[in-house]
Amino acid sequence: MDENRKVRVRFAPSPTGGLHLGGVRTALFNYLFARQHNGSFVLRIEDTDQTRFVPGAETYIQECLAWCGIQPDESPEHGGDYGPYRQSDRKSNYRQYAEQLVANGHAYYAFDTAEELEAQRKAHPNFRYSHENRTQLHNSLNLDPAETRHLLESGHPHVIRIKMPVDETISFDDLIRGHVSFDSSLVDDKVLLKADGMPTYHLAVVVDDYHMAISHVFRGEEWLPSAPVHILLWEYLGWRDSMPQWAHLPLILKPDGNGKLSKRDGDRLGFPVYAMNWKDPKTETVTKGFREMGFLPEAFVNLLATLGWNDGSEQELFTIAELIERFSLERISKAGAKFDFEKAKWFNHEWIKRSDDRTLVPYLTSLLADHGVYGVDRQYLSSVLELVKDRLTLLTDFWEQASFFFKRPDNYDLAAVRPRWNPEKTAFFVDMTAKLANFDPWHSAELESLYKLAIQASGMKVGELMLPFRIMLVGGKFGPHVFDIAALLGREETVARMKAGLQAFNQAAH
Ligand code: GLU
After folding, report:
1. Which of 33, 178, 301, 506 would you call most buried, defined as having the most Cβ atoms within 10 angstroms of its Cβ?
2. Is-contact 291 301, C-beta < 8 A?
3. Ligand 1 environment, Cβ below 6 A
4. What is the CA(23)–ligand 1 centre distance, in A?
C-alpha cells in the first residue's frame, strides 16, 4: 500500500429497502478505519438499478447512519469534493468508459433480446453468457462491423458486456483473506452498461471508486465473486495503479450457523435484522428494527463491531472512541460470525447500565409519551430510572418494569391476596394507612423500620404483610424494593393506593 495515500473509504448501499445489520456493520468498519487514519468516509448511493429502486430508502439509510452515530464526511445530503454522490446523478459519466472498453477489445455490444436470452435459458438450464457461447450469440464479436454500426445507429436496444479472458488467473491480496485467485474462464461476461444507458453495479462501482479516489474497499464477502470482474476493469481502464485495497468482511450467519442471516430469519425467530423500522412503501408492512425494539445505538454499534472482530483481549464492551482506537484489520476473522440475539440483548443491558440519565431520559420520555404519559418531572424520572435500570434489557422494558410509578394499578393480582385475606390484615392496613398518613421523614429506610415494627407488634408473618402492600402499590408481585417504591411515590400517593387496594381486597374477599 502506498503509505502516503490519503485514506478514503465508502459505504455504497443500494436504496432497495430496510438496512440489514450486515450493511450497518460494513458502514461501521469503513467509518472506524477512516477515523483511525484521519481519512474520509463517503456515503455513495448505488441506485443504477431502476427496477429495484424504492422511494424513501435513501433517506432511511441516512437516518440509520445518523442514529448509529457513524455520519459520513461526504454524502448526497452533505455533498463534498467528489460529488454527486448518487450514481443516478452521475449517469452521463459511465458510457464513455464502456465504449472505451469496446474500442480496446475488452468489451462488446450485445443485441440479444430478452426473448432470445429466455430461449437460451430454456434450452440450456445453466446458461451463462460467457466465452463458451458468446461466439454463437447476437453480439458485435460475431456481426460484421457494418452491421453492428447499423444496429447501433438505428437505435437497436443493446447492452455492453465485458469480454472475459479465457484461462487467465486473476488474483489480488485481500486485506482479510490473504491471497485470492480466480480462474477467468469461470466468470461470465457481465453486463457493464444496460439497454437504458445506466451502468450496472460492476461498471459504476469501478468508475466511481476511481473518480472518488477510494483507497480501501471494505464490503461483505458476498461481493468476493465480483472482484475478478472489478480487477479486470481497473486494469482495462488503465487505472490499476490507483486500485483500492480490498477487504471482504466475513458473512453474518444465522444463529445456527447455517447460511447467511436474512430478514426472513429475523421474522421467523422473532428478532430484528434491520437497524430501524422499515415500512415498505408498496405493501405498507412494517419490519421491526433494533431502534424501535429498544436498543441503544451505542449497544447496537458495539455488538456489530464484535461480529467478526475482537481486540484480542477479553473486553467486549467498547465505546465508539475505543473502537476507533482498537480497530484493526488483522483481528477481523475470515470465518462467518453467527448472530446471537441473546448476546445482542446482553450488550444492550450492559449499555443501559453504563448510560447516564442524559442519554436515557430522552428515550424514556418518548416511551412514556407512547403510553400517554406526559410532563413527568425530570428528577422523578431519574429516580425511577435509578431503581429499575438494572432490570432493563430493552429500553422498552421500562414500561413493564416501571409503569406503576406513573399511573395507579388498573387491577390487582387478587388471586395472590384473596386466599389469606382476613380481618386482622384489614385491621393492620387500616392502622398502617393512618400511621403513614402522618409519618415523617418519608424515606425508604425509615418506612421499612416503621413497617417492620408494626408487623412484629401484630404477631403476623412478615411475608403475609409485605406482599399485599406491594400489590396495593404496583398491582402485582413485581418491581423493586417495596419501600423504595413507597418512598418515591410519596406519602399522599402511597396512602391513596393503600386505601384503594384495601377496598379492592376487602371486596374480593366477600
Ligand atoms: N451497491 C453494493 C451493495 O449494495 C455495494 C457493494 C460494494 O461495496 O462494492 O452492497
Report:
1. 301
2. no
3. 12-14, 46, 201, 205, 219, 223
4. 9
452 belongs to the catalytic site: no
Q: Determine the distance separating the centroid of ligand 1 and the alpha carbon of 256, expressed in angstroms.
A: 26
Q: Coil, helix or strand for 475?
A: coil
| Whole-number Å distance between alpha carbons of 365 and 368 | 5
Q: Which fold has domain 414-509?
A: Arc Repressor Mutant, subunit A (1.10.10)
Top mutation candidate among 8, 198, 223 for ligand 1, by most atoms within 8 Å of CB? 223
- Quote the cell numbers at residue 437: 398518613
In whole angstroms, what is the distance from residue 452 CA to residue 457 CA? Answer: 9
Q: What is the pLDDT of residues 436-461, one digit of tens each?
A: 999 999 999 999 999 999 999 999 99
- Distance (angstroms) between ligand 1 centre and the Cα of 14 equals 7
pLDDT tens for 44-93 read 999 998 888 899 999 999 999 999 999 999 999 999 999 999 999 999 99
pLDDT per residue as tens digits for the range 8-32: 999 999 999 999 999 999 999 999 9
Cell numbers standing for residue 317: 464492551
* CATH for 8-89+251-338, options being 3.30.70.100, 3.20.20.70, 3.40.50.620, 3.40.50.300: 3.40.50.620
